[in-house]
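User: Hi! I'm working on a homework problem where we have to compare a predicted structure to a textbook description. Could you give me the structure for the chain below?
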Amino acid sequence: MPHVLCQLRRQARFFPFSPSVPAIACVQTEVGYVVIRQNLAILSGRAIALFARLVTAVQAVWRGADPGDMRQRIYFANHVSHGDFILVWTVLADPLRRRTRPVAGADYWGSGLRRFIGRDVFNAVLIDRTRTDAASDPVGQMAQALRQGSSLILFPEGTRNLTDADLLPFRSGLYHLARACPEVDLVPVWIDNLNRVLPKGAFIPVPLMCKVIFGAPMRLDPAEGKDAFLTRARDALLALRPNREAAA
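Assistant: Happy to help. Predicted C-alpha cells:
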C-alpha cells in the first residue's frame, strides 16, 4: 500500500495540502528499498568473494606494489574470462575493495541479475560499446570515476583473449586514461589459470588454483608517445607470467 500511494503521489499529486501520510509512506518505502538493496549487495559481494576463493584457491602475489597502499590505482590486467575482475577484486584488502570499481561492458552487465551484480555489488563503470556520442566516451567515464576517488580494474586488450597468444594488442584507452589522470599509478596484474577454471561457454567452474600477480606501479612519462607507452605497459604485464619465471 505505501508503494501504491507513492506512485499515485508522483503521477497525480494526491493530497497537496495534507502530505503527511502519503509523503511519509513514499519516503519510507524508497528509503527501505535502498537500504535492503545496499545490504543485499554487501552480502552478495561477500558470497561471491567466498565462492571465488573456494573454487580457485586464489593466491595474491605482490611484486613491487604494496598491498596495503591506499593510494588510487588503475589495475590493468590480461583478460581471458568474464570472472577476471571478480578475482582481482576478491584478493584486494577490504579498504581497497570498497573503493575499487571494475570497468565492464554494459551489454553483458546491463540487465537482469547481471545488472544488479555489476551496478550494486561491484559498482562497475559500465561502458556502452554501441554508442558513439560524447556522453558515452569510455575514457571520459573512467576519468570521472578516478576524479571521484575510485580505483579501477580494466583490461587494455578490450575483449577476452580466446586465442593461444599470451596477450592481444592493447587498445589506446589505457594511454588516453594515463594522459587524462597522470597522477594515478598504473599497476599491471597478471591473472593466471582462470581461463581453465571458467572456459568459454562453460556455466559450471572447474576447481583449479589461480594466482593474481601484481607488478610494480608505473606512470606515463610526459615525453612518452602512445606506442612506446603501450609497449612498455604490455611488457610489464607479460613479465609477470609464471611460465616466464620457470623458464628463467
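For your comparison, note the following. The chain is about 45% helix and 15% strand. Strands lie at 59-62, 73-77, 100-105, 125-127, 151-154, 185-192, 211-214. Good luck with the assignment!
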